[in-house]
Amino acid sequence: MACRTCLWLLGTAFFTCTVRLVVEGTEVGAPQGSHPEPGVVGSNHSQAGGGHGSSISGIQIVTFKWHHVEAPYLIALWILVAGVSKMVVELNHSLTSVIPESALLILIGWILGGIIYGAGKMQTFTLTPTVFFFYLLPQVILDAGYFMPNKLFFSNMGAILVYAVIGTCWNAATVGLGLWGCWLGGAMGDIDIGLLQFLLFGSLIAAVDPVAVIAVFEEVHVNEVLFIMVFGESLLNDGVTVVLFNVFDAFVSLGGAEIDAVEIIKGIISFFVVAFGGSLVGIIFALLISLLTRCTKNIQIIEPGFIFILGYLSYLTAEMLSLSAILSIVFCGICCQKYINANMDECSVTTVRYVMKVFANGSETIIFVFLGISAIDPAIWVWNTGFILLTLLFIFVFRFIGVFLLTWILNKYRLVPLEFIDQVVMSYGGLRGAVAYGLVAMLDENKFKEKNLMVSTTLIVVYFTVMLQGITMKPLVTWLKVKRAAVTELTLAEKIQNRTFDHMLVAIEDISGQIGHNYMRDKWHNFEERWLCWLLMKPSARKSRDYIFNIFHQLNLKDAMSYVKEGERRGSLAFVRNETKADVDFNKKFRASFSEIMPDIMADNMGPDHVPLSSILQDIVPSVCLDMHEQDLEMRESEDFNAHHLLQQHLYRGRKQHRHRYSRSHLETNKDENEVQEIFQRTMRSRLESFKSAKMGVAPAKKIQTKHQKKDKPQKMPNGNSTDKSKNHPYGDKDLEFSEGDCGSGGEAAGDLFPMRAYGVEAGIVNPAFMAEMDPMDNMQQMQQIPHVALLPQTLNSFDP
Amino acid sequence: MQETGFTPAHIVRLYDRFEALDKEKTGLLRPQDFGAINGLAMNPIGDRIIGAFFSPGQETVDFHSFVRILAHFRPEDKKRPKDPSMPEPVNSRTSKIKFAFQLYDQDKDGKISRAELLQVLRSMLEMQVTEEQLESIADRTIQEADLDKDDAISFEEFRKSLEKVNIDHKMSIRFLR
């Protein structure tokens, strides 16, 4: 079945190619451009140059107006071909897990190029720099910026910058100088080239390519820090590349003699201007986008359009000002994510996300296919063994050296050192791609006599890195991580314990706050909360953002409160025992508020603990579960099998390392959202129940003195808690009543510390419980206390759940 | 802080975290401070972990205890000389296993009874698992691990059942190194 489909698709691909070629073939001596045929009556033969109708013998019922549609038709056809190639590539999943998609697409490009070459039509379809830089690259980078995990990115920003700037400069310098040295030594024979040209070549070949990196890392699961390092580096090094390229280009034009200290200083200054200027342009456009989406409440259907247009404009604006266009669009995406996700309607957010993926995927496919096709062009091929082999060697070796050197320096300042394996992966993952090719194709032939040599070398480098390194990356990573658990069947205890450990680790990570607090981060957070959110987010979005978590507790407490009131009203314990009435329908309520915050799901929030639920949920959602490699068991005994099977099916998966996996082709829809919801509900429910148990102890004790004598010792509330809140709520007297005095426990063992603690907390609860009636909007502060307060630890000796 | 083995830089960082958690600046942490960490609400055993920080009878945690508990999660020092006269460091394999054991053994009687195991299982399994299924899992688990057939898992049995597990890997957080 798959075979047939495969063949059918291949056939379609070939068919479309041949059609095109046939069509091309019919233009006999026609001018290159497409001129629309004048008038209704046209003729098949292109006499378009004249623009006048040729002599006709009669009315033509149907005409074949190829030139009328030539340009758009070809474009559309190529996009179709690229899409079909992608389909062909994806047919066999086991193939794509061994060979990355990008390599396969390049292969298809070769095949297509071969066909076109064979049909005698070379050079018509190549990846021209204009098309690449203006029409294909922006979407890819916008996609990268928009889906960037901000928290991770900014917390590793220092390291990323070091690699991007210093690393790229190092690569450029060493490759350039190395090649120059070898040229001087005669290893390359006689070519018309100079030091500056070598340096220029070095600078364009040095940059790690974001498109290629993503394409390969999609298959290889690495931990998120490593991923963000390579990914971030590949995006930010454009600033350096642009500067170096322009500077050396200018130097080459000037000629060697004109270079003096002034020029060099100008070069260095231009780096800062280009990099920061580009980022600034991006940030300005991000502000624009956010402001615009703030005002589009009435016309939500056009919101997605704004994002794309303004993103593209930021790219073009930076390009116009000769700043770094990639940096601009990256920062545009990074900065606007949060606000537009909050402001826009849920459907718009989904649209934007999905369309962005579509565009990015499409562009990437086209880029790789064309990279393949561009190779089949004899005109550009110049073979110089020395040059090519030395280039390959140098970029490989110097990348390793550079990464290890920089990491060694960085590790002195990092709290979490980068390990050896990480460094190897980072060095090996420094892939070059289409950006290098685009840059080299932009070179002026007159200045660079050896342009074709450079183009050929660049192509070979790209193929080498994308294909060879791409294919071997995964085996390398697996081989390096040699320590694996012995493939034996785990006992039940081990399985349970493994999972417990996972949850434990995640909890401890949360408690210990893996991302440390620091002054700058907090300041930024405060600034952002006060000013930016006010400016850039719709008022309704602002509110929902802050209070999602609190809404839940509001619901909790409303129910708890109504429960207590009922109890007071009825004045009997019999009611209290009946839990069902006062039970909170978590599902209904939670879902309702949950769906409101769906747009927020991808919103990322920098900052410590008071983050809204939305971003928590986004953080929490585990994207990859690593330990799915559990062996299938033989049926020992049916009981045993069932137990293992049950465990495998139903154990909660914890958050894993890969929660920030960026993927080109998969939207991170919250697959494990249900699990998270469920856990959350259960935790809340259990806390609520312990709260209720507190109430159960207190209410009767206070109001119905007669009925209940609780044995346990009265607990002193931490005074700080109660006095704080008792200040500002209307039900002062009731509050005091509840805050001091007896708290009964559920009658459980006094040794159990949980109920005691539960009541320690209770004082705080009471006040907000009554304050829940007040408009929650008014006291943000108070409501933020609620999470502490309502989150009682689970009473383990659960009383009648 | 010698016994925890943290470097001064780590201690500083942990202290910053402690202060950030301690919203009311009392110098002590209470359960609600932990409760405010939103990630814990999503964790099936989050509340148990919170409980582990508080010694029996205590309502508050001071910085010293906070660090001590976290020290359990430091990766093991491979090069530590095995000196029998010195007390077991907090992050040794045994101490880690003990910490895990105490999560189960809430009543601190040195054994994980069937009921306690059931509780843990209940919290870690999805809602759709029925009581009978739970009980059968618990039964089988105890059967596998319980060597002296007292229908409970003692610390030694617990440790034995985990002898093949790489505890250092599973119970360490890199950044606490």
UniProtKB/TrEMBL annotation, chain A:
Gene3D superfamilies documented for this protein: 6.10.140.1330
Domain Cation/H+ exchanger transmembrane: 96-479
Keywords, alphabetical: Antiport, Cell membrane, Endosome, Ion transport, Membrane, Phosphoprotein, Signal, Sodium, Sodium transport, Transmembrane, Transmembrane helix, Transport
Entry keyword Transmembrane helix: yes
GO CC list: brush border membrane; early endosome membrane; recycling endosome membrane
Principal subcellular localisation of the protein: membrane
Signal peptide as annotated in the record: 1-25
Region listing for Disordered, in residue ranges: 30-52, 691-744
PANTHER family given in the database record: SODIUM/HYDROGEN EXCHANGER, SODIUM_HYDROGEN EXCHANGER 3
Summary of the function given for this chain in its UniProt record: Plasma membrane Na(+)/H(+) antiporter. Exchanges intracellular H(+) ions for extracellular Na(+) in 1:1 stoichiometry, playing a key role in salt and fluid absorption and pH homeostasis. Major apical Na(+)/H(+) exchanger in kidney and intestine playing an important role in renal and intestine Na(+) absorption and blood pressure regulation.
Protein name: Sodium/hydrogen exchanger
Organism of provenance: Salvelinus namaycush
Encoding gene, per UniProt annotation: LOC120065611
Automatic annotation (TrEMBL), chain B:
SMART domains: EFh (SM00054)
Domain EF-hand: 92-127, 133-168
Keywords linked to the UniProt accession: Calcium, Cell membrane, Cytoplasm, Lipoprotein, Membrane, Metal-binding, Myristate, Nucleus, Phosphoprotein, Protein transport, Repeat, Transport
Pfam families associated with the record: EF-hand_7
GO cellular component, one term: plasma membrane
GO terms assigned for molecular function: calcium ion binding
Subcellular location, record wording: Cell membrane; Cytoplasm; Nucleus
GO BP terms in the entry: protein transport
InterPro entries: Calcineurin_B_homologous, EF-hand-dom_pair, EF_Hand_1_Ca_BS, EF_hand_dom
Similarity remark: Belongs to the calcineurin regulatory subunit family. CHP subfamily.
Protein name: Calcineurin B homologous protein 2-like
Species in which this protein is naturally found: Salvelinus namaycush
